[in-house]
Amino acid sequence: MRYLSEEIRPLLEKKELLELVLVDREGMVLDAEGNLFNPEQLAALFLPVHLLLQNISRDLPLERVEEISVRALGPRIRVVLQPVTVAEASYLLIALFPTTTFYRQITADIIRVVKDVTRKLASGSPVQEGPPGSTGGKPGQ
After folding, report:
1. 135, part of any domain
2. Which end of the chain is more exposed for a tag (fewer CB within 10 A), N or C?
3. Residue 77 contacts by C-beta under 8 Å, 6 or more apart in sequence?
4. Contact predicate 61/94, CB 8 Å
5. Is the residue at 8 inside a domain?
6. Number of domains comprising the chain
7. What predicted TM-score, i.e. pTM, was given to this entire model?
8. CA–CA separation, 8 vs 5, rounded Å?
9. Which residues, including other chains, have CB under 8 Å from residue 82's CB and lie 6 or more apart?
10. Tell me: the pLDDT tens digits for 75-116?
């Protein structure tokens, strides 16, 4: 199932986003766009950070840790890790941005899309793929 394709491609084409990976709580890659790194490798590397975010929220008097970001100099990128919860299911969004991108609004938009799609999947509603007004994609894509 492709969760993010139509929403993400324009960001990739404009180089506002370099790569995006959506991971479930077991570390399984649910969707990935971009090809800077291997999505499974990113999931494996950053799943422990997802668990760390949950532990921080549980053990410190914090309502919720919204994100952790890592800034690298070669290549000049920012890796943003953001937990997403939909209907008590936990996901991790791994987004790679150029350091020059104002990433917060883009990340908020992506999370809105993820929540919308996962709610539809959980309720059994069909998920529309393709441009607005289309009848959707083939099952299993």
Report:
1. no
2. C
3. 18, 36, 71, 96, 97, 98, 99
4. no
5. no
6. 1
7. 0.79
8. 5
9. 66, 67, 92, 93, 95, 107, 111
10. 999 999 988 888 888 889 999 999 988 898 888 888 888 888
